TrEMBL record:
Site (Transition state stabilizer): R61
Annotated PANTHER family: PEROXIDASE 25-RELATED
Residues the entry annotates as binding heme b: H192
Cofactor info, note text: Binds 1 heme b (iron(II)-protoporphyrin IX) group per subunit.
Disulfide bond positions: C34-C113, C67-C72, C119-C319, C199-C231
Residues in Plant heme peroxidase family profile domain copies: 24-323
The EC number(s) this enzyme carries: 1.11.1.7
InterPro entries attached to this UniProt entry: Haem_peroxidase, Haem_peroxidase_sf, Peroxidase_pln, Peroxidases_heam-ligand_BS, Secretory_peroxidase
Cofactor: heme b; Ca(2+)
Organism, scientific name: Tetracentron sinense (Spur-leaf)
Catalysis: reaction(s): 2 a phenolic donor + H2O2 = 2 a phenolic radical donor + 2 H2O
Name this polypeptide is given: Peroxidase
């Protein structure tokens, strides 16, 4: 109890100073206000994943996109309005999905404890729970207490979501702007152990890397030949390929094994081998237990980016619109 009051005090001081708000998130934030909140998120998320194994990748990426734009404030869930085009309608929205799962969870939570659990926390919990379904236990800890923002701008998604064409320097900068280190960059990129990518984000590597009709020399030639059978031209914008070939539904450390074989799908993946420090970190992550332990920590850093806590923001009633 004493620590709680102290924490609250620290939170109030920090939020007055507008710094270090991530420190105000905590374990089981809803234990008194909505005892069944986390269990409800887990049950509903697992129900959806059991019939859709592609979902963990969708929800994990949704959390990433939420956090990198205005902090983890549920802004990625907001619909465009008459006056503004929302993040979800920006170009990097390609294949963003899982909104229906968040809405399903929110509807249930509004029934059992109206106006208590934020959409931002639901996104963070659902990302964890969906990935954890494979293991039937929680794969990382999620601190809660985020509140929802009321602004979502497509232009901010464009300028904050890193592009798959970035090199190491610009990737490092993109993460540093969010307070994340090169360690976090390499570890969080491991999320690409699940999910898919669209051909148009990589076919320049197959067909026109430097504008001379050439292939990216850093791409494994056997793998490039395989990818050319899937992505047949530069203009293909619809075909998808697995990011972690043959195990794109399994959350594991294969991403790093594959990276070492020069089979990273995007230039941004391959870029992790071009820097001495990040390349060393890749070597350390080849062991899946190390990866899991470190992913836990980096997800906590990502999940704390620019969060609204205390009395900032609001608890949305519906995740796709701000309260009126
Ligand atoms: C390091 C910078 C990153 C870049 C440049 C990047 C870029 C991309 C791109 C271009 C896609 C493919 C989207 C599509 O074609 O549909 C993708 C997919 C994905 N990304 Fe990242 N990403 C990055 C970091 C992250 C992080 C930090 C996470 C989560 C912690 C993440 C999770 C995912 C997941 C799970 C998918 C698969 C989505 C699906 O299956 O629909 N990515 N990423
Ligand atoms: C979650 O699912 C478990 C197992 O089916 C069940 O025992 C529990 O009552 C459920 N909890 C909630 C809050 O729905
Ligand atoms: C937000 O947009 C989605 C898809 O366009 C739509 O199904 C949903 O009803 C909208 N939400 C609200 C609250 O209008
Ligand atoms: C859109 O902007 C107009 C004028 O600035 C304002 O009156 C209106 O309330 C805004 N509508 C929404 C949905 O924000
Ligand atoms: C992505 O944005 C386009 C408009 O740029 C929109 O039509 C589409 O529905 C958006 N996709 C998602 C998943 O929101
Ligand atoms: C995640 O990390 C925290 C703190 O470092 C630790 O207490 C916890 O046991 C870890 N959880 C898992 C599932 O590894
Ligand atoms: C990385 O990309 C930036 C922006 O495109 C460019 O200015 C820089 O020269 C590139 N760095 C390397 C090492 O290629
Ligand atoms: C390859 O890139 C060059 C330079 O950007 C461009 O002129 C050429 O049209 C491209 N080739 C194809 C097949 O798109
Ligand atoms: C290319 O990938 C194959 C497996 O598909 C692997 O055996 C080989 O070592 C890789 N080559 C390089 C240069 O990494
Ligand atoms: C957004 O929320 C802030 C407080 O967090 C409030 O001052 C502002 O008026 C809100 N804006 C809109 C458009 O609702």
């Amino acid at each position: 109890m004493k620590t709680n009051i102290l924490l609250l005090f620290v939170c109030i001081v920090f939020s007055l100073l507008s710094v270090g708000q991530g420190d105000c998130l905590r374990m089981n934030f809803y234990s008194h206000t909505c005892r069944l909140a986390e269990e409800t998120v887990k049950n509903i998320t697992w129900k959806h994943v059991s019939s859709n194994p592609a979902l963990p990748a969708k929800l994990l990426r949704l959390h990433f996109h939420d956090c990198f734009v205005r902090g983890c404030d549920g802004s990625v869930l907001l619909n465009s309005t008459a006056n503004s085009t929302a993040e979800k309608d920006a170009i990097p929205n390609l294949s963003l999905a899982g909104f229906d799962v968040i809405d399903d969870v929110k509807t249930q939570l509004e029934k059992i404890c109206p106006g208590v659990v934020s959409c931002a926390d639901i996104v963070s919990l659902a990302a964890r729970d969906s990935v954890s379904f494979q293991f039937k236990r929680s794969m990382w800890e999620v601190l809660t207490g985020r509140r929802d923002g009321n602004v979502s701008l497509a232009s901010e998604a464009l300028s904050n979501i890193p592009s798959p064409f970035l090199n190491f320097t610009t990737l490092e900068q993109s993460f540093a702007r969010k307070g994340l280190t090169v360690h976090d960059l390499v570890i969080l990129s491991g999320a690409h152990t699940i999910g898919i990518g669209h051909c148009n984000l990589l076919s320049n590597r197959l067909y026109n890397f430097t504008g001379k009709g050439d292939t990216d020399p850093t791409l494994n030639s056997t793998y490039a030949a395989f990818l050319r059978t899937k992505c047949q031209s530069l203009s293909d914008t619809t075909t998808i390929v697995e990011m972690d070939p043959k195990s794109s539904l399994s959350f594991d450390s294969d991403y790093y094994t594959i990276l070492k074989q020069h089979m990273g799908l995007f230039q941004s993946d391959a870029a992790l081998l071009t820097n001495k420090d990040s390349s060393k970190i890749v070597d350390e992550l080849l062991d899946s237990n190390d990866f899991f332990i470190k992913f836990n920590k980096s997800m906590n850093s990502m999940g704390a980016i620019g969060v609204l806590t205390g009395s900032s923001g609001e608890i949305r009633k519906k995740c796709s619109v701000v309260n009126s």
